[in-house]
Each structure stands twice: as structure tokens, then as C-alpha cells.
Amino acid sequence: MTRNRVPTIELGGTHVAVAVIDATARAIVDGSYAARSIDSSGSAADLIDSIAASARTLGSDHTGRWAVAVPGPFDFDAGIAQYSGVGKFDSLHGVDLRARLADALDADPASFTFVNDADAFALGEYAAGAARGLSRFCCITLGTGVGSGWVVDGERTDGAAPEGELHLLEFEGRRIEERMSRRAVRAAYARRARCATAVPDVKEIADRARGGDPIASEVLEDAFSFLGRALDGPLARFDADALVVGGTIARSWDLLEPPLSGGLGRTGFPVLRAELGHEAPMIGAAFAADATLLSAQGR
User: 257 phi and psi, to 5 degrees?
Assistant: First the structure.
């Protein structure tokens, strides 16, 4: 059993989560998942201590080959953080996270595989979620921003966006996240509804739209339609089989899917709701690490 179990860490902007992934079943081992809040503005020592403390809860009934999903910017091959001016983890800039975690966990530095969190999410959906059986697809996550992963036959690629990152793409003279992100949606609602204070979050704006608020409906429809138009070109250039959509904003699927599909302007093109939620990046990171291990062993 141990040889099929991959210990996995997922580092988010406000949390660190850990789990053991059954690489054969492509699922989290029952009882192994745990998450804790972290302060992304904390010191490097405090952040690494929190990550390591969470990782230790996984015990030793696993391969010891660690899969780590982290946000960019990050040197994934070297294991070195490159955060600077992105509003989180600034203290980790230039830190060799591979070496520091290996030391804290008494592990071999070579046992760590680092994976971009958006790529890991996409690979998780490919391994065990909505993208099962797809050859070429793009997976986006909608929340504080627009994350993106591009997958061909189970391997991540840069797809049809700068460095594989859709948030770097410009459309209609603006970066995508200036129109489609938590910040952008809230700002658009505040502007149209003339909210001076107490601007509602996206979930509340969605609830208001369902309740008949015309401004809320217009704001969301504009944002999701814009996203569809912005993605149409990249998806065509990539020759994608489908678009998979996850993230917190995708919980408002009833409001998101119609204008997004309409913006894409391609009749019958599959727009699929992600199935795995918080499990996706962990399963995807383990999937990538397991494939890396098998390749290194020549199997």
C-alpha cells in the first residue's frame, strides 16, 4: 500500500492543506486530509514551520516522494520561490523551498516535485474529475483571479497563453483580470449600484441576481460574457476539446455558464463544471509527481 501513496502539500494564499493520495485510485486516502490557515505575509521561518507542521501529520505510511502544489511565480524545477510584489509570500522570495522543507521533514531534497497550482488543478480534473477521457483541454479557476492550466494527453503545456497564464492575456485593450476577477466584479457592482461602503462579495452579488437585482445580473453577465469572448481565440488556437471551469466563482454555475458559453460563440463546444473542488490540485500534484517518479525510474 505504501508504494502507491503520495504525500501531498497544497499551498494557497490563505491556507496550507495536506493529504495522502492513493496514486492507483487517484483519490485522497480517507482521514488524511487536513488544512490550516496561514498568514501569507508572515516570515519565511513561520511559513515553512506551518507547512512542515501540517506535512508531519501525514505520518510515514506513504512513499516519501512529496508532491507540492504552489502558486507562481516559482521556479518549479529548482524549488525556489520567486514571489515579489504579488501580495503574498513576499518573505519566501529567493528561498530554496525544496531544501528548507527537506530539512524540516528530514527528507531527501530530490524527493520533492513542485507543480503550479493551476496546472495541478487541471491535472486533477484530468486524473479523476470532469476532464477524464479528454485529450486536449483548458481548465480555468475563477476566484481572486483567473488561473489556467492546459493539458495534452495528461501532461501540462503552455497552451495558447503567455507562459501558459491566461491572466497575462490582454483582450479588448485590458488584462482579463481587470474585467473578470473577484476584485473586478465587486468594483463593477459598486460603481453601477453606487455603493460607497459595504460592497457585497461575489456570492452575495450572485444571490442578488437570482433574487431579481438587475444590476447584479448585468454585472455578472458582462463579466462572464467578456471571459467567453476573451477565451474564444486561445481555445481555437489550442484546438481544445473542452473548457473546464472551477474555483469559488464557478459555484454560481447557473449564472456563469450561459453567458460564458454565449461569449465563446461556438455552438456545442463543451463547457464543463469542475468536479473535484479542493481535492483537484492535490490529486493533480500527486499525479504529476507519480508520473515524474515513474519516468525517472524508466518504467
Answer: -60, -45
Q: Which domain holds residue 231?
A: 130-273
Cell numbers for 168: 497575462
CATH number of the domain within which 145 lies: 3.30.420.40
Q: What is the average pLDDT value for the chain, to the nearest integer?
A: 92
Please give the average per-residue pLDDT across 147-166, as a whole number.
90
Q: Give residue for cell 507519480.
A: 290
Whether the pLDDT of residue 167 is over 60: the answer is: yes
Same domain, 42 and 103: yes
What is this structure's pTM? 0.91
**CB 265, CB 229: distance < 8 Å:** yes
Total number of domains in the chain: 2
In DSSP terms, 81 is beta-bridged to 74
Answer yes or no: do 73 and 193 share one domain.
no
* Count of CB atoms situated within 10 Å of the CB of 263: 20
